[in-house]
Request: fold
Amino acid sequence: MKHLKWTLALAASLMSGAASAEISDNVVRVGVLNDISGIFQDTNGMGSVEAARMAAEDFNGGGKNIKVEIVYADHQNKADVGNAIARKWLDVEGVDAIVDVPNSAVGLSINTLLRDSRMTFLASSTASSDLTGKACSPNTIQWVNDAWATGNTTAAAMMSRGGKDWYFLTVDYALGKGIEAEAQKYIEGHGGKVLGSSKHPLGTSDFASFLLQAQGSKAQVIGLANAGGDTINAVKQAAEFGIQQSGQKLVAFLLFINDVHGMGIKVAQGLQLMEAFYWDMNDDTRAFAKRFAARPGMNGKMPSGNQAGVYASTLAYLNAVAATGSDNAKDAVPEMKKFRGKDKLFGDTTIRQDGRVVHPMYLFEVKKPEESKYPYDYYKLVSTIPADQAFRPLAEGGCELVK
Reply:
């Protein structure tokens, strides 16, 4: 009788395990949530949707005939709008993972909403380093970039080239403040000075007064702690003021190839920027970029680092689903964190226990027009920051997931 009870208990346990590790609704739904109509529409937008679709196609059922659907929505750079979409996806529409999410305020809100839910948050474009610090979640994986890496690695690279005195033009929300704070901490900790800072609203069109203050500071480096259309406008107007010609260096903390294309290489020439991905780095990145450029609606555009991050994180998540037989974050995220190896788009890659995806970062300088030989041939590599130096050390983030 005891043996029978043990057998029944074991059978029940196995059935329970099989039930918990399953694909909900027999389909894996990945929701691309980003800015489709605003300042991030070129670096993310519908390009991110196509990148996710490419990942689903390359996954090809994972050898198990797993069906994948890609859905998408526009968060309009508003935390309440993004939260409402994510909640509907979670409660009503059976979406299993959310990917992309540029805008740190939106990303942090969704990170809180999804914590301990069944949904995975693939924060491939959310740059707040709080996602792997005080706000870390067992449901979140953060790819591509963050404020710590952007602030520290960019400041370190520029200071190693003589840029000791800084002035910041900073977008007045979580992303910009986080980047400036991280960069300032590094600069002042390594013998440099921050001579001033100007805060501007998201979506600023006129940077004249801010640039005049930066120019008047005589700082060696003017750091643009903003993104998207704000950075483009600032760089264009800096060119009109002749800032770089007068000897000050202009560095963009968060700029992408699409932004450089949008402002034109003549305007952007000499600009320093930090990137995690460049389409023309090697054979793998070029192959991906050419496929991307041929996708519907892309019209020959090369992918941004954020769009590459959507592809890489979506494919990594789907591979974890195939390996575990489950689209639940409790199963998929721990499986993702086992990865150690070479990602085709981001090089040597590790996914840490705090959810941070660690890979090399690169300081580029925008070429002069005469140095560019073909479309989107915009960057020359200045220096490579190895993966183990590019991101905040695991023990220093304050994440409770780190044992």
Summary: The chain is about 40% helix and 20% strand. Residues 327 and 334 are 12 Å apart (CA to CA). Confidence is low (pLDDT under 50) at residues 1-20. Residues 305-324 form the longest helix (20 residues).
